[in-house]
Amino acid sequence: MHRTLADDLSRLPELLQSARDLAARELTGLSERPVVHLGKAPDHAALPTGGAGAEGALARFAERWAPGFSGSAGPRYLGFVTGGATPASLAGDWLTGVYDQNGSGAAGSWATALERETVDWLRELFGLGEAHSGAFVTGATASNTVGLAIAREWLGERLGVSVSRDGAAALGPVHVLSGSPHASIGKALSVLGIGRDRLRSVPVLSGNREAVDVAALDSALSALDGRPAIVVANAGTVNTVDFDDLRAIAALRERHDFWLHVDAAFGGFAALSPSYAGLVDGLDAADSVCVDLHKWLNVPYDAAVQFTRRRDLQVAVFHNASPYLGLPAGEPDFVHLTPENSRRLRALPAWFSLMAYGRDGHREIVERNVALARELGERVAATDGLRLLAPVRLNVVCFTLADDPTPERVDALARAVAATGEAFVTPTVYDGTPGLRAAFSNWRTSAADVDRISAAVARAL
Question: How far apart are CA 315 and CA 384, in angstroms?
């Protein structure tokens, strides 16, 4: 064994303690460190020849790179939809690396059984029935891709071909309909060989909405003359967290033949609260569902889950035809259900957080974040120079400059907010108007943080 490696092995407990001490210092100061760092990163260093050992690597990281890492795990990082990591999920994530289980199959470890238990808990949390099975993937994009891959195979089943064997070209023209699809849907269609241009936007409801007009969707499906299609519904749009009427969309299957995929990446968490669960009424009717866990479940990157009613088609798409990986008989191993052969045990941080805080603890995070988003929305509406672009429907505040909101002026406002070190928001375009999004999903965020966020925005004007 290499001398440095052998030395690290002999001192492993001390090294882990050093890493723990650094982590504790960083997390203790998280609320006060700059939310983002805009300065220039260090120049690239040469690849080490001899190596500095784990202690040396830790010291050099702390000195050279740690100061430039963002406070994205903290309470005032409102960009994208980014959760943090609850204490229990962080412990689970550390142990994921410690145990380093191969999550592909059940042979020789209980890791697969733990993932199945966690998926069952999540299925129950989101109000899905036992007909839905699931698996962990990396994020919403991977989850949407898996769901649409199963939908693609379903189209083949309806048309009498096997896409997994014959390829997507065997389908002919594919019709994918949606009101306000997330960008990851187009990316998934590109990866799957269906094509971005096969995604057809269906009119949305009038009155500052992003939810699909179900009557318009009905007409678009009628125009297909009975050809099967894919409908992508939204349970929480990215700009304003608007929700399609899932129950009404599902009812269209009485007259039309389509696969219903629901992108519930973060909006699905509305199911945790009795006050907002009605927004996802009908989710159980979906053929496939995307939920992103490193958003509102507040587990570390990267973790999401996908659900489907057609595990048989999922196996047809993703199975590995190799004897050493086992055959997908009975309860198939996860290696036959997702794109990856190599899978870390992403379920463990989620298992820890669900075990530690339960349904009630995670419901409190959701309800507190919604209340704080509405408070910020009220402050934005009352601030001279700003206006809301849409009502605060759940956890995202979408706003812009009151006068002349050009892309350049709005981007300058975003940069000025970031430069305060107090908050971070991301740009968007809503109904043709450049704006900013403040997305609340972190378990740490409090009313005091809203004070600091609104003050930072006001100073940046």
Answer: 56
Q: Give me 433's structure tokens.
A: 């108007």
> What is the DSSP annotation of 170-192?
GG-S--EEESS--HHHHHHHHHT
What SS3 class is residue 136? strand
3-state helix, strand, coil in the chain (%, to 5): 50, 15, 40
Burial class (CB in 10 A: 0-12, 13-18, 19+), 352: buried
What are the sequence ranges of the domains in the chain? 91-352
How far from the centroid of its chain's Cα atoms is residue 314's Cα? 21
Q: What phi and psi values does residue 388 have, to the nearest 5 degrees?
A: -75, 140
pLDDT in tens, 365-405: 999 999 999 999 999 999 999 999 999 999 999 999 999 99
Cβ(16)–Cβ(58) under 8 Å? no
* Residue 91 dihedral angles phi and psi, to the nearest 5°: -60, -45
Question: Which position has the token pair 């997908």?
Answer: 328
What is the pTM (predicted TM-score) of this model?
Answer: 0.96
Q: Under CATH, to which class is 91-352 assigned?
A: alpha beta
